[in-house]
């Protein structure tokens, strides 16, 4: 089951001057999900929404 988590807008500003903005943004979002929702894993990013699914404790 997929879960939609809103991404805080300030992450866009943090990546403003980066040469590889997309990669850095994804790293920030991955860190945010790991810290805020440790039971979830990031599947993909759609706009300012992180699409996540519950971690399988046996596989992860």
Provide structural commentary:
The protein has 60 residues and is an alpha+beta fold. The protein has one domain (2-54). Helices cover 35% and strands 30% of the residues. The protein is built from 2 helices and 3 strands; from the N terminus they run βααββ. The protein has helices at residues 10-14, 21-36; strands at 2-6, 40-46, 49-54. Strands 1-3-2 form a 3-stranded antiparallel beta sheet, covered by helices on one side. A hairpin with a 2-residue loop joins strand 2 and strand 3 (49-54). The radius of gyration is 12 Å and the shape is elongated.
What descriptive keywords fit this protein?
60 residues, alpha+beta, three-stranded antiparallel sheet
Q: What's a quick, concise take on this entry?
A:
The chain is of the alpha+beta class. The chain has 2 helices and 3 strands. A 3-stranded antiparallel sheet has the order 1-3-2, with helices on one face.
Helix and strand pattern:
EHHEE
Number of helices: 2
Strand count: 3
In terms of DSSP E residues, the strand content is: 25-35%
Shape assignment: elongated
The biggest beta sheet reads: 3 strands, antiparallel
Domain module count: 1
Radius of gyration: 12 Å
